[in-house]
Design a protein that fits this description.
Bound molecules: adenosine-5'-diphosphate, magnesium ion
Oligomer: single chain
Length: 490
Amino acid sequence: MAAPWDDVLRDKSAIQEAAWVAVDAALLEGVLMRTEGEPNASDVSARARSRDAFGPGQAVVNYAPFTLLPSAVPSALFEQAYAVQQDFNLLVDAISQNKEFLEHTLASTVKVDDFTARLFRIHMQVLEEGLAQSVFLGINRSDYMFDCGVDGTPALKQIEINTIAASFGGLTSRTVAVHGRVLKVLGKSKEASRLLPNNPSKGLALGIAKAWELYGSQSAVVMFLVEEVQRNIFDQRCVENELWNRNIRVIRKRFRDVFEKGSLDDAKRLYMDGQEVAVVYYREGYVPKNYDQQNWEARLLLERSRAVKCPDIATQLAGTKKVQQELSRPGTLERLLPGRAEAVARIRATFAGLYSLDMGEEGDKIAAMAIADPDRFVLKPQREGGGNNLYGEELRQVLEKIRDSPERTSYILMDKIKPQPAMNYLLRAHSPLQVSECISELGIFGVYVRQGKEMVMNKAAGHLLRTKAIEHADGGVAAGVAVLDTPYLV
Ligand code: ADP
Ligand code: MG
């Protein structure tokens, strides 16, 4: 999978020159993130404004980390990932409507994992009351790595599918221009012209706009539900701008705001500060630390409402790692997608080995297998956002400790995917320019809209390539491990 710029990788002065250009291009294109020290301001820092000892103008915005060079991606696998995305959209949507499947699949998990249990309780409560929502909007991102088999042929293997708050569709819409510029500076104009256009933010916005339209109230707004700490606001603004361009009003609120100012009317229409909300787009709410008691109450209020939630709570549950593991059981996909044998085959082809650690003989065997050969596996709890999985010696130790306890059922086990590394430079503010051995993860954004039983939109909406140095087993861009990249098809 060599890229056609391996020849310039060691040319220090050309690389340095290109890196300067790259950083300016990133700033110019808006590949931006707020800094860790000032995650909630985009202008000069609050401390500098208050004229204390910090002096004038601390940087509060910088470029989001990215690779200097695009990374080679096998075109056949890239196409395969796009081709299966509509199938995954259908699958996630089918799971979200299948009460029995979710109940059965998550039964062991909810006993030991409080977070999943709380989500599940809201799901059940909303179903018991009867769904007020009739339009459904899914925005997901299916992530893959290119597993290098024994014969060295790379295969597309799914890492996970993110059904809530899948991010970086905005910023990645702007990295193509940056990488195009870098290649030109390095004398690779022909290669630059081969970079594919990519605009997930537009695709995501089209889905949100469709849901807003079907909700059917011209004066209603789209609400982005955002975190307390908003470092990645520019990524969200890219999607937001696409909506404003279509004359759809967008507000940004936190759970806290919903708790204080949200209400439902008799028809369960959702109001914020007196404004009717048509669509709630969650960029928050996927990890336990997003919730205190008030935030749980706010979540329940949103879920009970008629507003289109992206995702609704059932779709969030469909994205849990336990569900992913159950999908790999023989026969499960066939039951969820009856009469769609081709879709089932396309989906199954992307699955790596996934194993249940539920109590019983099967789970005992799996635990023993992993303890005996920990480097073959990844141990995953029901968490999102990076940095939670266990590998190698740590995996062995943890599993040994919990192998006879029901606690083990809060994890799933997965075959470790081993991609072929490639050399690249990871550009991060305040970091020296040095070449690293890297691996990449490809994400495909999926968008769908369903009205009642009818799918009215089902699309792949663009891609995201993230690259990290091989010494990091885990973690994404927001976790500070991976950086944004652009695929160069080979
Ligand atoms: P999260 O919900 O935290 O993003 P993931 O399942 O995506 O959980 O795992 C986080 C990261 O760990 C991935 O981005 C990838 O780098 C690494 N990872 C996860 N599963 C595997 C696997 N089976 N093989 C190799 N690396 C993996
Ligand atoms: Mg992930």
